[in-house]
Structure formats: C-alpha cells, structure tokens
Specification:
The complex is a heterodimer of chains A (497) and B (323). With 497 residues, chain A is α/β, with parallel strands linked by helices. Chain A has one domain: Spore Coat Polysaccharide Biosynthesis Protein SpsA, Chain A (Alpha-Beta Complex). Chain A is 56% helix and 10% strand. In chain A, α4 links the parallel β1 and β2. In chain A, α2 runs parallel beside α16. By secondary structure, chain B is mostly beta strands. Chain B folds into two domains: 72 residues, Immunoglobulin-like (Sandwich), CATH 2.60.40; 156 residues, Methylamine Dehydrogenase, Chain H, CATH 2.130.10. Chain B is 12% helix and 45% strand. Chain B is built from two helices and 25 strands. Chain B has a four-stranded antiparallel beta sheet with strand order 5-4-7-8, with no helix packed on it. Chain B has a four-stranded antiparallel beta sheet with strand order 10-11-12-13, with no helix packed on it. The chains are: A alpha/beta (497), B mainly beta (323). At the A-B interface, α2 and α16 of A face α1 and β3 of B.
C-alpha cells in the first residue's frame, strides 16, 4: 500500500487520536479530578441506558419488518408490476469473490443460489478466484462441472496477482470479475441498466426470495440506480454448531445491522449486498486498494453522485457462516481478527473527508453531518466498553480519601450497577429475538441446546470486555500509526476446519 | 418505511428529551442535591452510609425507623447532626450521633453489633497450668506443671494426646514455647533452659535427645525460637545469646548488655529481636535505649558463628539502634 501524505495522513490519525485522547483524558481526570470524572461517567452511563433502550426499540421495529415480510412472495409481486418496468429483462449478476475458501464453503452457497425462485436463465454467476490460490483452478473446474448448467451463464475468473495500483483485497478481485461480467453483457448487447450486481461473501447462502425482493425494491424505487440494496445478514449456516462465544457475537452483529437498517441517514452497505450494474460501471467498480470494500463502495457512489445516493434495506436474509475455530481461545482470536477487520472500516473516514473536500456540490451541512456520524460511530465503538468497564470504577479506586468521603463516591457504583441491571433487562428482549431468527434445530442437536442458548447470554459482559472495544481501538491505532492492515479472509466454520 | 421512520424520529427526539431532562436530576442525585418542589431549587444534602457486622440491622434516624436495613446509604439528608441507632434482634444496640456535611458521605462502617449471648464454648476441663494456642495448625497445647506433662488437643477440644513429659528436677517454669516446626518445646527458668521433644514424632532431622543449657553465671530473662526451629535466642541479664538445639551446644554471645529491661520481643517472620538496655551517656547518666537485632540478615554469618568456639563479649551481628 502506498504511503499517504499530508492531509490524508492527518485524517488517518484523527479517529485513533480522538479515541485514545478520550481514554487518556478520563484516566487522568480520575487521578486529578475524580469528582469531575465520576460526573462524566454517570452522564455516559445514563446516555448508554437511553441509547440501549432506543436501539432495542429500533431492533424490535426492524424485527417486525423482517418477519412481516418473511412469507412475502416477492417474485409474484414483481410479475404483477407494469411490464414497462422491465422485470422480464432484469438480469442478476452474482459475484462470489473467493480467496482461499474451499469447496465445503462454496458448494452450499451455490446450492442456495441455484435453489432461489428467480428465473435461472436471468442469473449470471461469476466465480471470482484468485490466480495465486493453490486450488483455484481445480475448484473452479469442479464447481463449473457441478453448477455450470444451472444458471443463465456461469463464468469463472482468475484475478492475477500484483496488478498495478492494486492491493491484495477482495475489492480488486471483485472488480476483475465485474469487468468480465461487463464483457459478457457487452457481447450480448445487454444494457447495464438491465442488470443488478450482487457481490457476496463466499459463504453467503441467499434466501429463495432474495432476488425477487431485490428486483421488486429496485424496480419500484425512486432513482433506482442511485441506491445500494442491503439484505439482513444472519449467521445461520452453522449457528447451532458454533461455540457460544462466536454465536453470541454474530447474533449481536445481525442485530446491529438490523438496527442500522432503521437509521437510513446512517445506513451503509455491509458484507453481501447488491446494486445497479450501471452504477458500478459509472463509479469505476470497487476500490482496489482498500480492505473495507463493502462500505467503501457506498461512499464511492455517494461522492460520485454528489450525495444523491442511499442504501435501501431489504428485509430478507442472507445467511453466512459463524467464524469459529477448534477451541475457545482460537475462536476468540478468530472473532477478534474478524471484528478488527470490520473496524478497519475506519479507513473510510479519511477517504470520505478527502472526497468531501474535493467535492463542491454536496452541501456543507450534509458533509459535516455525514463526517460526524462516521467519526462518532467509530470512536464510540472504540471507547464505550473501555469507559463502562475499565474507567467506570477508576474514580473510586484512584480518587483517594477526599473522593471517598463525597456523596458521589457512594452513588457512582449504585448508578453503574443500575446500568448493568438495565442492560440485563434489555438482554431479555435480545434473547427472545435471537430465538426467532434461529434456523430449525438440526436433528443431531439436542433439545437441551435451547436452554444453553438462554444461559449463554450471561457471558455477554465477558464478550463486551474481550471484543467490545478492543478490536476497534486496535484498528484505529494501526491506522493512526500508519501500520496498514492487509486483507485476511476470516476462518469460517461452516464445515469445521 | 416512512411510518417507521416517523416513529423512529419521534423515538429519537423522545430519547434526547429524556436524556437532557433526566441528566440534571441524576447528576444532582449523585452529587447529593435534593430538589425542593416548593422552592423549585436544588438543596445540597449529604448522606450517611451504614454498614454493620452482622448485617440486617434496623436503622433509626432521629428515632424514626427507616425502611432500609444495614448496609444502606441514607440519602438526601440536610446538613446537621443526626442521632443514629442500630438494632438487631438478640444483639446489643449501637447508638451514636453523626454530623452530616453537604455533598459528603459520613460512613458508619465499623460497627460490630455484639450478641447478647456471646458464642462461648467450653474447650477443656482437663487439668493444666498454662496453655498455648496454635491458630495456624488449629491446636491447643497444655502444660500441666503438677503432673509434669504436656498434651494437646484440637481447637474443638478433641483428639487429646500426651506429647511430652517434663523432667522432674526442673523447678519453677518461667516460660515455655512450642517450636515453629511443632516438634519440640523449650521450658526455662532463670538458670536453665531445657528442650523437650514430643513423643509423637520420631522423624527428626537430628537426634531427639533432651537438651539442657545451664546459666550458672547469668539470669535468663527471655527465650525465643528462631524461625528455623533449631536455634534458641536467649536474653539474659548480661547478654543476648544464640544456642543450638543439640546436646553440649556452646551458646554464642552476640551482644553484651548492661542493665537489660524485662521486655523483649521476637518477630519470627523476620527473625528480629527487639530489646532494651541502659547505656551510660557521656554525661555519666544511665539512659534506656531500644535496640533491634536482626538474626536473619546474614544467615551464613549466623551458621559460622554457631560453629565457632564461644566468643565472649563480641557483637558480630549487625546491631541497629531504634530511636
């Protein structure tokens, strides 16, 4: 990765600097002005209670939408649309960028794709392998043999290693594949407007109604080419087999995404998602040198269309693998690295702000609001658990005799305790909702597992402690110090590795 | 979706409102302020934190019974003096007056409510002259001066066993102590020290022959076990000596004394002896001084000293004066 200079380097320092600054400031305050520190902690605790309540309400609303549309026959609704909207000519380009995932991960994804209700002749599948992958050609041949006749078109691409202005990222591979798809469309004179492109993680198993839902929302949307379409990611592929730690983290990730889907002004693409192929070509594909391609593609579009770009939530699920490993410590490590990679989305901040500075057509208010949202979400991610768990008790520990004699010294633990009790209450809602999104219990899994699924929620404080803030703080620190991350595919546990 | 967004916006602003309206009240509560609904002002109050041993005591504030039981913090008290009484059934009550200051917490957290019927248990009715308790091993050692035997039991007065016989000729036992290894004890009077090994153990590292140390020229004032259970630290009216716990051992004189005081304290954790002695000042007056003598500062030196012949009047170990 080329080393950035000047402004971009400064922007890279801001999130990490701010997060560490807040932490250092509060620790220093606990030493020097414990009363002031306690006041800030109580205010933060109260803010967190309100925020948790607010977000849980949003989650319930998103859940209601998801389940309200669960049995919707989207394809039927598409067929009922006026012919002029062009459903019958709408192609689905599906790209699966493959890094080192094996057949045990890829095969279920393609089986799920083949099982969708969407007309198969209108699906163009692009299996995007890395040329450097040891098994790429062999796996490509096997999959093509198995699935070649099940779609309108089946393309296997092999992204060469070390192309100029590229890093080893998923975006570079997906771009190579999208260009192959473009060539395919050009050869058949299919207009880009007639194609939607879905870039899926290798372990993505789509719902049978996914493309119907996507097509319906696309065809009926106002400014349909100025939007990305984001399904709800659930980690149901192996959720019954995954260890509790990984399961809880991924359920929380699903819930976070569902909550985000209710906050349209902040909603950004994440993981597997879809968009107009015309738009993809116009914005010159995915960035080829950034790891967080899933979110950067949104920001790239947002800047290209001068802020006239949005994400449309699709209340239909795509199922992914829970990342886990052979024992709890390796699972924690795998989860930590995956969350750190997600938190590396902080690289969007310098990208977006630089883009805002160059773009004169987006209103200043929009620029400020979006920059603030982006910065605030990453900084909050990096500091919230540290403030609640680590800094919370500090005034009492470091405050000395003077502080211990004040009323606030006695009230701080009481109020903090109240926060945790309240969090437990909201956890009940989360436990209930988590049950409803579970796939059917496999026969080999005991009924007692249901009880375990409830009991494991007591480990939430431990999870908060381990991967609440630290991956984000780690990612921001790396960006701040210029130690750039490289793309590493997460170890997935669909078929236990 | 539009309806959902409207509800969400409403929720957002409601949350914002709750935060900004609620926060001053929460902070005021945390800082000890009380909102006076009549004057519409915040008044700064203090609190009393009550903790008792055992917990669960009723709390009376100026004679009024409170709903909370100890441990509890009594909030929103206007500054001033308060009468507190704590009552627990079958325990002596506690009463006191506390001063509450604005914004501060007054802790009453060292209250022990003693039971009216103390938990008194009879351990032993056996005949004995003196006893020693070993809390670490949960044992009691009894010395019967008349029958000249030593026996022991556990702390529940069970498992009695005779462990040693004392020599008949040894007169007027002034003191005794079980060694740290619990394998023997010493008894002493002004002229003699005797070490007696317990009968119950035969796995000594050294021959369990009784040890006598006579002091014909000096008067033994105090004797202590060194933490290694092999050396005795002896304070006489003339010197401080260390003696090995073996027959015919020659004590080593560590410090000469002029007029030692009766009291001497030995810290077995650091092997340090604290003692007092009178010294003649340059003006000719006698002045009492406190000393400490470290016996583990240089273990090699101690071993060497024991091995050497009796060195009269030489203080070779480090000696430090304590003001």
């Amino acid at each position: 990765m080329n080393k950035p200079r000047g402004l971009k380097r400064m922007l890279e320092i801001i999130p990490g600097g701010l997060s560490w600054g807040i932490i250092a400031f509060l620790i220093l305050l606990a030493f020097l002005r414990p009363v002031a520190c306690a006041i800030i902690i109580i205010a933060f605790d109260f803010y967190w209670i309100i925020r948790t309540l607010y977000l849980t309400t949003l989650l319930v609303m998103a859940h209601q939408r998801l389940f309200g549309q669960k049995h919707e026959n989207w394809l039927e609704r598409c067929r009922g649309l006026p012919a002029g909207l062009g459903f019958k000519q709408l192609y689905q380009i599906v790209i699966f960028p493959v890094y080192n995932e094996g057949l045990e991960v890829l095969r279920p994804s393609l089986e799920a794709l083949a099982a969708t209700h969407y007309p198969p002749e209108q699906i163009i599948l692009v299996m995007a392998f890395e040329e450097r992958g040891a098994w790429s050609h062999q796996n490509a041949a096997l999959l093509e043999h198995e699935f070649g006749g099940k779609f309108g078109a089946y393309l296997s691409t092999f992204h060469p290693d070390g192309l100029p202005q590229e890093c080893r990222t998923k975006g570079a591979n997906a771009t190579w594949a999208a260009k192959a798809a473009k060539k395919y469309l050009d050869e058949r004179s299919i207009a880009y407007e007639q194609a939607l492109v879905s870039c899926f993680d290798a372990d993505t198993c789509v719902d049978q109604e996914y493309f119907g839902c996507l097509s319906y929302h696309f065809l009926t949307s106002d400014k349909k080419h100025r939007a990305s379409y984001q399904p709800m990611p659930v980690y149901n592929n192996n959720i019954w087999q995954a260890p509790f730690f990984a399961r809880l983290v991924e359920i929380s990730s699903t819930f976070c995404q569902m909550i985000e889907s209710m906050r349209l002004e902040k909603f950004v693409t994440f993981s597997s998602h879809s968009m107009s192929f015309k738009t993809l070509v116009e914005i010159d594909y995915w960035p080829r040198d950034m790891i967080s391609d899933d979110s950067v593609i949104y920001w790239k579009s947002y800047l290209h269309y001068n802020g006239d770009y949005r994400v449309v939530p699709l209340y239909v699920t795509v199922s992914l693998d829970v990342a886990y490993s052979s024992n709890i410590w390796r699972t924690i490590s795998v989860q930590y690295r995956q969350k750190r990679r997600w938190a590396w989305g902080v690289e969007n901040f310098p990208f977006v702000v630089e883009g805002f500075l160059r773009n004169k057509k987006i209103a200043l208010g929009h620029k400020l609001r979006r920059s603030f949202h982006l910065l605030e979400s990453h900084v909050t991610w990096a500091v919230w658990a540290v403030i609640l768990v680590v800094i919370g008790p500090l005034p009492v520990i470091l405050g000395g005799k003077f502080f211990s004699q004040t009323a606030i010294a006695y009230n701080l633990p009481k109020i903090t305790g109240l926060l945790f009790k309240f969090t437990l209450l909201t956890s009940l809602t989360w436990i209930f909702l988590s049950w409803t999104i579970l796939p059917p219990r496999p026969k080999e899994v005991s009924r007692w597992k249901y009880l375990a699924l409830i009991g494991e929620w007591v480990f939430v404080p431990l999870i908060i402690l381990v991967i609440g803030s630290t991956p984000a703080l780690d990612a921001q620190t790396r960006l701040m110090l210029g130690r750039y991350m490289e793309f590493n595919a997460t170890l997935k546990g669909n078929k236990m590795l | 979706m539009l309806a959902f967004q409207k509800i969400r916006t409403l929720l957002f602003y409601c949350s914002l409102l709750i935060f900004f309206v609620g926060l001053p009240f929460i902070l005021a509560y945390a800082l000890g302020y009380k909102f006076n609904s009549r004057s519409f002002k915040f008044v700064k109050t203090g609190l009393i934190f009550v903790k008792t041993q055992p917990p669960g005591a009723q709390i009376f504030l100026n004679g009024r019974l409170l709903a909370e039981k100890s441990p509890a913090s009594i909030q929103e008290l206007l500054p001033g003096a308060y009468q507190i009484s704590l009552k627990l059934e079958r325990h002596y009550p506690w009463k006191g007056q506390v001063e509450v200051e604005a914004g501060k917490a007054t802790p009453i957290d060292k209250v022990i409510l003693f039971a009216r019927q103390p938990n008194l248990g009879l351990l032993s009715q056996a005949e004995f002259s003196t006893f020693r308790v070993d809390p670490e091993r949960k044992m009691v050692y009894y010395l019967d001066g008349k029958k000249r035997i030593v026996y022991r039991s556990n702390l529940d007065a069970g498992n009695f066993e005779d462990i040693a016989s004392l020599p008949d000729k040894f007169e007027q036992i002034l003191g005794w102590e079980v060694s740290p290894d619990r394998a023997k004890l010493f008894i002493f009077n002004h002229r003699q020290i005797q070490v007696v090994y317990f009968d119950t153990q035969n796995d000594y590292d050294y021959p369990a022959v009784p040890v006598f140390i006579d002091y014909p020229q000096a008067k033994v004032l105090n004797v202590f076990w060194h933490s290694n259970s092999y050396h005795l630290v002896v304070v006489t009216d003339k010197n401080v000596q260390v003696a090995e716990c073996r027959p015919q051992a020659v004590p080593v004189n560590l410090v000469d004394l002029n007029r030692p005081g009766k009291d001497a304290v030995y810290d077995p954790k650091t092997d340090t002896l604290y003692f007092s002695d009178f010294q003649k000042s340059p003006s000719g007056n006698w002045q009492n001084s406190l000393y400490k003598l470290e016996l583990s500062a240089n273990p090699d030196l101690l071993e060497r000293l024991i091995a050497q012949p009796f060195a009269q009047g030489k203080s070779l170990l480090r000696e430090e004066r304590v003001e």
